[in-house]
Write a structure and sequence with these properties.
single chain, 463 residues, alpha/beta, FAD/NAD(P)-binding domain, Polyamine Oxidase, Chain A, domain 2, 3 domains, binds flavin-adenine dinucleotide
């Protein structure tokens, strides 16, 4: 029976193992995870009724892979969606004030976030000719070219801050937001592309006899996101070995050997590396130094999650919604705040709220050196300023991510292409995870599924 070793038990690795088990029952799988449990970035903690997500807070259903994985794991009935108010009411903290993110053209027209000139530039987007730039454009360049410098400074920054904790001048538009350049190329403009592709999706759904798709929704579970990775771990059972820190992989006459600390080694016909890029680079260093260098070049930012609980009575007048972003160019002590107990039920005890601040990112990684008390004080000060919170927090929990989210900087897709070409010289070796083709949980589920297909194809051919 061919044997596959998957290294890294976050979401990508277990999703790959699950799909392999389903689609290639003649293949045996071992999943090696350095930590004490499966989940990686995904982790839910319960403290005195405050349900804290240490990493991701939910997933969007913009791609079908993760909703399908939940259904296949039998979790469909346990999914919960973010409240409508959380979808509609999102805020920006700029120039010392909280501003509602405009919804639709009328909201944009009346929003104080842009000057008349900025609005003119934004509304001219559909009339600008499409261009095929000669270089890999940054998010800031792309948005400024299509919609003006102000839209780039306000909205592109907010988007990149909220999703990547990164800098729009550094991140590649094609790598971080692949849909935007595709819409420009296919439809001649981004706004036109959104409208036309939404119409096409609606037509296609109606033709299939399905209801037209609504706006994207955020999902989690009443007991938190860890339900997903716990279910994967339970399904994989003894195939998972935790507490195994893989150090290197080597070729053998018949395939591969995966080496951990000490003398432990696992033989394999195929190896999937689904751990962070810097770990993959270390494992590849002896096998293929140029490939290891390419992988090592993928940078990560630093993030501290600071969860705080308040008495509801101390938070009068805080709007109902998702939370707010403080665009990274403002260099504030926090990048944004998610109002977790407004988004999902069962996040805080009765009469209390639970909020989560994300601090750090590419430009304020220094805050990770602050001790917990200082971080909580800084977050509380920001919340008093932005939201007028009256009393002190009654609960706090700090989680540090020294290497949090991979940054798809300009040139990322070229780097990934060179990594793919180099890895292809090692039949049976597969590199995946959030470092390459998308950082959202939905992207990781997709990558897990795709790598499982590639491994099954390889073993079918090899067998
Ligand atoms: C603070 C934060 C908030 C986020 N918020 C969201 C959000 O709201 N929505 C969203 O969609 N995404 C969010 N993300 C992104 C998303 O959580 C990640 O991209 C995703 O979870 C990554 O999954 P992965 O399996 O690729 O990698 P990881 O979760 O990093 O898993 C890799 C695994 O490999 C293991 N490992 C490492 N080294 C070794 C070794 N030597 N041997 C064996 N195993 C090893 C690790 O222990 C880990 O378990 C967030 C990320 C962070 C950090």
């Amino acid at each position: 029976m061919p044997h596959v070793v998957i290294v890294g038990g976050g979401l990508t690795g277990p999703a790959a193992a699950f799909r392999l088990k389903q689609t290639a029952p003649g293949v045996s799988v071992t999943l090696l995870e350095a930590g004490g449990r499966v989940g990686g970035n995904v982790g839910t903690e319960l403290h005195d009724g405050f349900r804290v997500e240490a990493g991701p807070n939910g997933f969007l259903d913009t791609k079908p892979f993760l909703p399908q994985l939940c259904r296949d794991l039998g979790l469909a009935g346990r999914l919960i969606t973010g409240r409508d108010a959380a979808r509609k009411n999102r805020f920006l903290y700029l120039r010392g004030k909280l501003h509602q993110m405009p919804a639709g053209p009328l909201g944009l027209l009346t929003s104080p976030l842009l000057s008349p000139r900025g609005k003119w530039d934004l509304f001219a987007e559909p009339f600008r000719r499409p261009k095929r730039p000669r270089h890999d454009e940054s998010v800031a360049e792309f948005v400024a070219r299509r919609a003006g410098k102000e839209a780039a400074r306000v909205f592109a920054d907010a988007l990149v801050t909220g999703i990547h904790g990164g800098d729009p001048a550094e991140l590649s538009a094609a790598a971080a937001f692949p849909r935007l350049p595709v819409l420009e190329r296919t439809y001649g403009g981004v706004v036109r592309g959104f409208i036309k592709s939404a119409k096409r999706k609606k037509r296609d759904a109606l033709a299939r006899g399905e209801p037209p798709p609504g706006p994207p929704r955020m999902w989690s579970f009443r007991e938190g996101l860890q339900v997903l990775t716990d279910a994967l771990a339970a399904d994989l059972g003894p195939a998972v070995q935790t507490g195994v820190s893989v150090k290197r992989i080597t070729r053998t006459p018949t395939g591969w050997a995966v080496h951990a600390d000490g003398r432990d080694a696992w033989p394999a016909d195929a190896v999937v590396l689904a751990c962070p890029a810097y770990e993959q680079a270390a494992m590849l260093a002896d096998l293929d130094p140029p490939l290891a260098d390419l992988v090592a070049g993928i940078r990560y930012n630093r993030i501290a999650v600071v969860a705080v609980g308040y008495r509801q009575a101390d938070c009068p007048g805080v709007p109902d919604g998702f939370g707010y972003i403080a665009p990274q160019h403002t260099r504030r002590d926090l990048l944004g705040v998610q109002w977790c107990s407004s988004i999902y039920p069962d996040r805080a005890p009765a009469g209390h709220v639970l909020w989560r601040a994300l601090c750090g990112g590419v430009h304020r990684g220094d805050v990770l050196q602050w001790d917990d008390a200082r971080l909580v004080r800084a977050v509380h000060a920001e919340l008093r300023l932005a939201l007028g919170v009256a009393g002190d927090p009654v609960f706090s929990r700090v989680v540090r991510w020294p290497r949090a989210i991979p940054q798809y900087v300009v040139g990322h897709l070229d780097r990934v292409g060179r990594i793919d070409a180099a890895a292809a010289r090692h039949p049976g070796l597969f590199l995946t995870g959030n470092a390459y083709r998308g950082v959202a949980l939905g992207d990781c589920a997709e990558q897990g599924e795709r790598v499982a297909g590639a491994v099954a194809g390889f073993l079918g051919r090899a067998g």
